[in-house]
């Protein structure tokens, strides 16, 4: 309920908590009809038939054991159905609490022939793999981007432009593998993806985090102000020629065109605050606004008090010199800034780059810029950690980075990694595999290894714990069952208790020990 109130205030909706009835149970659902209509209309107002894209996904498939969501296909929204009200057993004007279905029908463009959208032939791939075991199913799977896991997790969600771009790039990667495995109209699918990517980059614009940066600067309704400014730029057809920050400065001088609640926020004091910003602060706001990040994420890098509270020690000048530090230094937060948000911010589509070039020292021109390569190494090692790897040999690292659905691709090789040697700190350290080959590891895992190794070696060298106890009696007390009368069973139970007593003695005396045993052997009882 508190989250809904916050959203209603941030978006200036007419949703009112007072309308909600007192229920005799706890619920996070909106119950009152008017409030339901407001939330439904607000959600679906972002969907424009003939323009918006729709992605279909599955949470689990027989193609992979990976926990990531699987993209099934993509198309265009053709229609949005009306809101449906529940049927009642009496006239509507006599109903105390009206309610509406949360579901709405959406028409899409995916048809045989794939002229405006496509589906992946996963079923055909499975049948082909039954005949040819050498086919790697997982490399053909288009996984939903990790950055947008939540949007691909709760039924229908609104996917931001960055999410759609990342999803289409992943679809493109998967299709390249399909091309090598089976026949299909891959050229048409790739052409459709390329066309939509170009369109999405233009719609996304250079400053997707403009509203978040405004909020970080102090504009309470920064998202709405950004929406208003972009609406004006779109009406004037200058969205790719006029910098929204320039329009913001003009509104501070004359805010009469703004809605009244925004006029109250942008008074003379606020205008003076803007004028007093130094060059470094303005550059930081510009950089943050180029990344598709949330209000909280932008605020903790612009507002000193929020930065200190989050435990972030990186300096503004360091972030401006290396924008990828926004990703590297934010990894421990509950809602960390993702690599993709930064990468798309500093490496947008070519037309966007030309229209609004990023100023030095933040400018990134090369696909193998060492700042980008280091951040990609960090990202790849984080993903590997989720699979159980605490380091990766350089050859694996290179292969995984090369296979990432990036725009532009990062053609990293061993020579590039060699150049990175002097810039590994403070996030990466060199490692070595058992065969002597080079590897890289996240610094925190290196520290963890050193801590564990030091502790284990100290304990191994230490004297055994002194003292002794009646281990058999302790085991009998824990088991708390009479010994069976049957002779064979007594013999088996006796051996089991002797084994437990020996294990208990060893665990007590040893400064470090590991208890192993198959299911049902009594490990939990012993402990």
Q: Largest sheet, described in full?
A: 4 strands, antiparallel
Q: Over the alpha carbons, how many angstroms does the gyration radius reach?
A: 29 Å
The count of helical stretches stands at 24
Structural class: alpha+beta
The gross shape turns out to be globular
**C-alpha end-to-end distance:** 44 Å
**Care to count the β-strands?**
7
Instruction: Determine the strand fraction and express it as a percent band.
Output: 5-15%
Uncertain segments of ≥5 residues (pLDDT<50)?
none
Q: How much is the average pLDDT? A: 93
Structure in words:
With 527 residues, the protein is an alpha+beta fold. It is 48% helix and 7% strand. The protein contains 24 helices and seven strands. Strands 1, 2, 3 and 4 form a four-stranded antiparallel β-sheet that branches. A hairpin with a 5-residue loop joins strand 6 and strand 7. Helix 6 crosses helix 12 and helix 22 crosses helix 23. The longest helix is centred in the C-terminal third of the chain and has 23 residues. The radius of gyration is 29 Å and the shape is globular. The model has no long low-confidence stretch (mean pLDDT 93).
Keywords:
alpha+beta, 4-stranded antiparallel sheet, globular, 48% helix, 3-stranded antiparallel sheet, 24 helices, 527 residues
């Amino acid at each position: 309920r508190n989250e809904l109130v916050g959203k209603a205030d941030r978006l200036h909706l007419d949703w009112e908590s007072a309308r909600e009835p007192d229920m005799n149970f706890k619920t996070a659902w909106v119950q009152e009809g008017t409030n339901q209509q407001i939330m439904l209309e607000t959600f679906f107002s972002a969907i424009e038939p003939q323009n918006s894209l729709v992605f279909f996904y599955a949470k689990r498939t027989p193609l992979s054991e990976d926990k990531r969501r699987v993209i099934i296909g993509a198309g265009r929204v053709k229609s949005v159905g009306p809101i449906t009200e529940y049927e009642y057993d009496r006239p509507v004007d006599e109903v105390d609490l009206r309610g509406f279905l949360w579901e709405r029908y959406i028409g899409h463009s995916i048809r045989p022939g794939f002229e405006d959208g496509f589906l992946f032939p996963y079923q055909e791939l499975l049948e082909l793999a039954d005949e040819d075991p050498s086919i790697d199913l997982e490399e053909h799977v288009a996984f939903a981007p990790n950055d947008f896991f939540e949007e691909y997790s709760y039924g229908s969600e609104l996917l931001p432009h960055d999410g759609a771009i990342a999803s289409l790039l992943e679809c493109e990667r998967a299709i390249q593998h399909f091309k090598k495995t089976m026949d299909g109209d891959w050229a048409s699918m790739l052409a459709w993806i390329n066309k939509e990517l170009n369109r999405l980059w233009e719609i996304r614009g250079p400053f997707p985090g403009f509203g978040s940066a405004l909020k970080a600067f102090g504009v309470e309704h920064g998202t709405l102000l950004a929406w208003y400014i972009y609406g004006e730029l779109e009406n004037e057809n200058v969205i790719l020629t006029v910098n929204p920050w320039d329009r913001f400065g003009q509104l501070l001088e004359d805010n009469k065109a703004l809605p009244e609640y925004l006029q109250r926020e942008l008074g003379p004091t606020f205008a003076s605050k803007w004028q007093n910003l130094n060059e470094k602060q303005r550059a930081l706001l510009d950089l943050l606004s180029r990344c598709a990040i949330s209000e909280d994420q932008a605020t903790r890098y612009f507002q000193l008090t929020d930065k200190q509270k989050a435990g972030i020690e990186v300096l503004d000048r360091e972030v401006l010199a290396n924008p990828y530090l926004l990703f590297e230094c934010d990894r421990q937060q509950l809602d960390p800034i993702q690599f993709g948000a930064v990468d798309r911010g500093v490496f947008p589509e070519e037309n966007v780059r030309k229209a609004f070039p990023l100023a030095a020292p933040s400018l990134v021109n090369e696909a193998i810029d060492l700042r980008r390569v280091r951040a990609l190494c960090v990202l790849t090692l984080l993903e590997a950690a989720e699979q159980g790897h605490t380091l990766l040999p350089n050859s694996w690292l290179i292969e995984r980075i090369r296979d990432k659905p990036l725009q532009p691709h990062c053609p990293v090789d061993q020579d590039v990694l060699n150049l990175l040697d002097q810039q590994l700190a403070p996030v990466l350290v060199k490692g070595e595999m058992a065969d002597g080959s080079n590897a890289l590891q996240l610094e925190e895992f290196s520290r963890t290894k050193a801590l564990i190794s030091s502790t284990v070696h100290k304990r191994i060298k230490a004297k055994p714990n002194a003292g002794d106890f009646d281990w058999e009696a302790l085991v009998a007390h824990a088991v708390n069952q009479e010994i069976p009368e049957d002779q064979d069973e007594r013999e088996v139970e006796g051996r089991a208790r002797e084994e437990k007593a020996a294990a208990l003695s060893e665990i007590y005396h040893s400064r470090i020990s590991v208890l192993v045993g198959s299911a049902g052997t009594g490990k939990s009882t012993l402990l």
